[in-house]
Amino acid sequence: QGGPTGGPTGAPFTSGPTCHANVQFGCAELSAAAPAFSLSLVEAFESFVALALEAEGLVVSSAVKFPVRLQTRRADHVEIQTHGYEVDLVGARADGLVLATVKSYLGSRGVVAEHVTGTTTNEQARKRYSLLNRPEVRGKVVREAAKLYGYATSQVQLRLYVGRFAGKGAH
């Protein structure tokens, strides 16, 4: 499976851009007004991102969950748990693979940059973005995606698309 023949959903892939497990941050300004059709703002923003990926020549599929085995923080014995980390969109073309996490947060405060980077003291908020702010999780997801779709890890790019950032900082 994977590579040019298809992904886990059976969608044919040709593949995406090159990068070594780097996280790219993108922001698109969209109106928070309700759309005239039945899509929610989250679905509408995800569709917008999918179209942008297709404009880059990528074949795009919907969400994929990658299993990641991590050691727990137990002090009395070693314990390994498997957690699923989901990327919202997968884009592929011959030269690489894009794993896209999409957060619209339109009509709300927005994405807090410190939560994404992991520099917050709010543990629950930090965990929401573990895929992006925990290098061991990010690395394992990139390796699993590369293996699943038939790419080198250097060909896998992890991206975050944000509809709205919170605050008025330099983020």
SSE blueprint and pairings:
Elements: E1 23-27, H1 41-55, E2 59-61, E3 64-71, E4 80-87, E5 89-93, E6 96-103, H2 113-117, H3 123-127, H4 130-133, H5 135-149, E7 156-162
> What class do helices, strands and sheet pairing give?
alpha/beta
> How would you sum up the global shape?
flat
Would you report the number of β strands?
Answer: 7
Unreliable stretches: 1-39
> What is the radius of gyration computed over CA atoms, rounded to a whole number of angstroms?
17 Å
Largest sheet: 5 strands, mixed
The percent range for strand residues is 25-35%
Helix content: 25-40%
Order of helices and strands: EHEEEEEHHHHE
Count of DSSP-assigned helices: 5
pLDDT averaged over residues: 78
User: How far apart are the termini?
Assistant: 39 Å
Strand order of the largest sheet: 1-7-6-5-2
Question: What features would you describe in this structure?
Answer:
With 171 residues, this protein is of the alpha/beta class. It contains five helices and seven strands, in the order βαβββββααααβ. It is flat and about 50 Å long. The N terminus is likely disordered.
